[in-house]
Write a structure and sequence with these properties.
Blueprint: H1 22-34, H2 37-46, H3 48-62, H4 73-82, H5 84-95, H6 100-104, H7 108-113, H8 118-135, H9 138-152, H10 156-160, H11 164-187, H12 193-218, H13 228-239, H14 250-271
Helix pairs in contact: 1-8, 2-5, 3-9, 5-8, 5-12, 8-11, 9-11, 11-12, 11-13, 11-14, 13-14
């Protein structure tokens, strides 16, 4: 069999601009998750509260005697908080194996041996989880606001509550950033995606239990900052201009969330590394 010339040839394929390689990871990861029927079922189930609220708005608009269920700013605060249940399951379903699976398959070294930096790798994984989290929080909340405007036939509600658009945006994006960073950090600590899910659930319920125990003993909620969930609840009340449910100040709550994100970033910086070759 003849051996053909294998000399050097210029690469003729498409070159991704530097700093945009993370798109490849993000798109591939999103397609991979969408291909799972069980996950699609979870996403569809996560939109049921939207349908319930839409029916509520329809009844409130068309039946004056049902004015007690008319939408308010608190209604949208309650909605994004109720979506937290689906955020929890989407985070575990999507994020548990994002880095853990790569560690198990020794794929991290392959990723980082290509023209891809650690920041791009993390950004790609982050984007996968962020897209699905926003799909069950930000998007249905904004669509619910649009539904209310359409059913009412006027912009009066929006003009009276114009802060709802930035409130929904800021809260859902803050929740997404904190949740995604924590999950990615946990996923980088082990090669088992199941153990990652257990760690995330354990952290979620353990911190809430500790806070509630302290609250029961001290009869004060000023220690809510020890629970990431309580921090998000507290900052959400402030963003939506509702009465804060805990005694912790908004500044302390925000500092706690920033600290959580910083700790997660530090873990990722330490754990996501290529193989160092010593010469």
């Amino acid at each position: 069999m003849p051996i053909h010339d294998q000399s050097y040839r210029h690469y003729t394929g498409e070159r991704m601009p530097r700093g945009r390689v993370w798109n490849v990871i993000a798109v591939a990861g999103i397609k991979h998750m969408i291909a799972k029927r069980a996950f699609l079922g979870l996403l569809l189930f996560a939109w049921l509260p939207f349908l319930v609220r839409a029916v509520q708005f329809y009844v409130a608009v068309n039946f004056p005697q049902a004015s007690m269920i008319a939408p308010t700013a608190e209604t949208f605060r309650q909605f994004v908080e109720q979506q937290g249940v689906f955020t929890f399951f989407v985070t575990i379903f999507t994020g548990a194996g994002l880095i853990a699976n790569d560690l198990r398959a020794n794929a991290l070294q392959i990723y980082l041996s290509k023209p891809m930096g650690r920041a791009e790798y993390i950004a790609g994984k982050f984007a996968i989880l962020a897209v699905f989290l926003l799909l069950v929080t930000f998007l249905p909340a904004m669509m619910l606001l649009a539904v209310q405007i359409v059913l009412a036939g006027s912009l009066k509600f929006l003009l009276d509550h114009v802060f709802l658009i930035p409130a929904i945006t800021v809260y859902t994006f803050l929740e997404t950033v904190v949740t995604a960073l924590v999950m990615l950090a946990l996923s980088s600590l082990t090669k088992s995606s199941r153990f990652v899910g257990i760690m995330f659930a354990g952290m979620y319920f353990f911190t809430v239990a500790v806070f509630q125990a302290i609250r029961g003993v001290t009869h004060t909620s000023s220690m809510s900052w020890i629970s990431p969930t309580a921090n998000l609840e507290q900052i959400g009340d402030v963003i939506f201009r509702q009465t804060p449910r805990y005694e912790t100040s908004a500044i302390v709550t925000l500092i706690a969330l920033v600290a959580i994100g910083a700790l997660a970033g530090y873990i990722l910086e330490r754990r996501v590394r290529g193989v160092e070759v010593v010469t």
